[in-house]
Design goal:
- The chain has helices at about 15-35, 35-50, 55-80, 90-110, 140-145, 165-175, 185-200, 220-230, 235-240, 250-260, 310-335, 345-350, and strands spanning about 115-120, 130, 155-160, 180, 205-210, 265-270, 290-300.
- It is an alpha/beta fold and about 350 residues long.
- α11 (about 310-335) packs across α12.
- The relative contact order is 0.12.
C-alpha cells in the first residue's frame, strides 16, 4: 500500500503518530501476552533445527525488548511534553543515550553482539562530522552508542522512512536531526536542511551521516557502479575495487561540512553486522560467532579538501576505498568463524 506523501511531513505528524504509536503498543502488548504461545513454538523449532543456537527464541525475544523500549521511550517523551520540557535538548539526549544503550544491551545479551572499538578517542572533541559504513539497521545505533558516553550530542541525517519508528519520530524531531527524502525533487532543499543541522556545533556536537545512502549489498553496489559508469567512467573505474561498501554519495557530507566549517571528519569502519541486514535473515546468523569490530579514524579539517569541488569527492572516494580494504582484511581474518560471510568470500579470504 502506498503511503501518502503528506504522511511524512510535519503537517502529517499527528496522523502518522496516530498510526505508529498504537501499532507499536499493540505489538508490545501482543508479544508480551503471547509469550506462552510463541516462546514454546520458537523453542521447539530451535531444538529441532539449531539446539545450540536457539536463533528464533533470540530474535523473537529481541523483538519483545525492542517493542517495550519503544513504549517506554514514547511514554517518557510524552511525560517531558506534559512537564513543559519538550524543548529541552539535554533531556532528550539523555533519553536517546538510555534508549540506544538498552537496545545494544538487548543485542549483546540475546544475540551475542560484542563490540570491540579501536580509536575511540577520535570522537572528541567536537565539532566533528561522522561518516559511517552502513550494512545493517543495527549499525545505525553505533554512532550514538559511541558518542553518548563521551558526552557528545549526535545530530543525524536519516531517511524519512524511519519516521515509522515512534521514538525516532518524536524524540528525533525535537533534536537537530534531518529526515531526508532520498529521491526528492528538491535536492537543494534537502542539502540545505543537512547543512542547517550542522550549523552552530560546539565541542560537544557531532553530525552523523551514512554516505552510502542505504544498506550495502552486492546488487546495490553493482547498480550504483553501473550508474556512475554512465556519467563518470573514471570514477567508476576508481571505485571498481569496492567489495563490501557502496560508492559514497558525497553531496550530503559536503553539506554538513559547509554547515560546520571548522569540523573534523571521523570515519567509522566496522564489521560483524553483515548477518543482521534483514530481519528475516537474522535467525541464520545469531548468536554472532565473532565480535563486531569498529575502527575510528579522525581526519583533521586541514587534510580534507573544501566541499564543492572535485577534490572533495575524490578524497571521500579514496577514504571509502581504504575503508573497504580494511573491511575486507578484517572479514577475511574472521571468515573461518563467521557464517555471515558467504562461501565465495571465504574462498577469497583463503586465496588472500
Amino acid at each position: 500500500m502506498e503511503v501518502p506523501g503528506g504522511f511524512w511531513t510535519d503537517e502529517g505528524s499527528n496522523l502518522r503518530r496516530a498510526v505508529t504509536v498504537p501499532a507499536v503498543a499493540l505489538c508490545a502488548g501482543g508479544l508480551a501476552a503471547g509469550v506462552p504461545m510463541w516462546l514454546p513454538a520458537a523453542l521447539a523449532r530451535d531444538l529441532l533445527r539449531a539446539p545450540r543456537r536457539l536463533p528464533f527464541v533470540r530474535v523473537a525475544s529481541f523483538a519483545l525488548v525492542w517493542s517495550w523500549l519503544e513504549c517506554i521511550g514514547v511514554a517518557t517523551s510524552g511525560a517531558l511534553w506534559v512537564l513543559g520540557r519538550s524543548d529541552r535538548p539535554d533531556a532528550h539526549y539523555a533519553l536517546q543515550r538510555w534508549w540506544v544503550a538498552r537496545l545494544l544491551d538487548g543485542l549483546r545479551v540475546l544475540c551475542n553482539v560484542q563490540i570491540r572499538v579501536e580509536g575511540l578517542d577520535a570522537l572528541t572533541p567536537g565539532p566533528v562530522v561522522v561518516c559511517s559504513r552502513h550494512v545493517s539497521h543495527a549499525d545505525a545505533l553505533l554512532p550514538a552508542w559511541l558518542l553518548g558516553p563521551a558526552g557528545m550530542r549526535p545530530r543525524y541525517v536519516m531517511k524519512r522512512e524511519l519516521l515509522v519508528d515512534p521514538c525516532l519520530d518524536i524524540v528525533g524531531n525535537r533534536l537537530p536531526n534531518h529526515f531526508v527524502e532520498r529521491d526528492a525533487d528538491d535536492v537543494e532543499g534537502e542539502l540545505a536542511g543537512m547543512a542547517a543541522i550542522a550549523e552552530g556545533m560546539t565541542a560537544r556536537d557531532a553530525a552523523v551521516i551514512f554516505p552510502e545512502g542505504t544498506l550495502a549489498s552486492p546488487a546495490r553496489r553493482e547498480r550504483a557502479l553501473a550508474r556512475i559508469a554512465e556519467t563518470d567512467p573514471a570514477r567508476a573505474e576508481r571505485l571498481a575495487t569496492l567489495r563490501h561498501l557502496l560508492p559514497p554519495r558525497h553531496r550530503g557530507t559536503e553539506a554538513l561540512l559547509r554547515g560546520a566549517p571548522d569540523a573534523d571528519v571521523v570515519l567509522v569502519a566496522h564489521t560483524g553486522f553483515e548477518g543482521l541486514d534483514r530481519l528475516l535473515a537474522a535467525p541464520e546468523h545469531v548468536p554472532l560467532d565473532v565480535p563486531v569490530r569498529v575502527r575510528l579514524e579522525r581526519v583533521t579539517r586541514s587534510e580534507v579538501p573544501g566541499p564543492g569541488g572535485d577534490g572533495f569527492a575524490s578524497w571521500l572516494d579514496e577514504a571509502w576505498s581504504a575503508m573497504d580494504a580494511w573491511v575486507d582484511r578484517t572479514l577475511a581474518a574472521d571468515a573461518p568463524r563467521n557464517p555471515a560471510i558467504g562461501t565465495e568470500d571465504q574462498e577469497t579470504a583463503r586465496i588472500r
